[in-house]
Amino acid sequence: MRPDEPLLIVIGPVPPPMHGAALVTERLVDEASRCGDVRSHVSSGPFSDRFSAYLGAAWAIPSSRNRRRRSFYLSVSGRLGQVPELLLLFLARLFAYSVYVHHHSFRYLNRQSSIMSLLVVVAGPRAEHLVLCETMAVKMRGRYGVQRVRVLDNAAFVPSANRSEQRPSEVQKPPPSRESAPQLRVGHLSNLSVDKGLLDVLQTFRRLCAMDARIELVLAGSPVGRKEHLILEDAQEEFGSHLQLLGHVEGAEKESFLAEIDCLIFPSAHVHEAAPLVVLEALSHGALVIATDLGCISEQLRETASIVVDGTRDFADQAVVALMEGPRTESERRRVTALYAERRVAACGELAALIEEVFG
Question: With a threshold of 0.85, does the pTM exceed it?
Answer without folding.
Answer: yes
